[in-house]
Specification:
Layout (H helix, E strand, L loop, with lengths): L7 H4 L4 E3 L5 H8 L16 E4 L24 E5 L11 E5 L2
Antiparallel strand pairs: 1-2, 1-3, 3-4
Length: 98
């Protein structure tokens, strides 16, 4: 849920879960140039395990995904908001398989 009020073009948010080994910074840098695809760079689609839509204020989305069968306990998946500068400002984290 995007709790703000600004439209997605001004202050969008999403949640992008990357596959293990994907370069989070390279993805974020490519996303800056991908406004036409809501900051999900098509050339890096293979890096993504799951993603929400880009949301504007008041919008909501949900995502369901299956952790790959070969993801052993301790496997780390990085996630980020791919809207320009959001990842660099700290909108990123990790999801760990337990």
């Amino acid at each position: 849920v995007h709790t703000g009020r600004a439209p997605k073009e001004a202050m969008g948010h999403n949640w992008v879960l990357l596959r293990p080994g994907a370069d989070l910074n390279a993805y974020a840098n490519a996303a800056v140039r991908a406004a036409a695809s809501d900051y999900l760079p098509p050339e890096r689609a293979g890096d993504v395990l799951a993603a929400t839509k880009l949301l504007g204020g008041g919008a909501r989305d949900a995502v369901v995904f299956t952790v790959p069968a070969d993801a052993a306990a301790g496997t780390i998946f990085e996630y980020l908001c791919s809207f320009p500068a959001h990842c660099q400002l700290g909108m990123r984290g990790v999801l760990a398989v337990k």
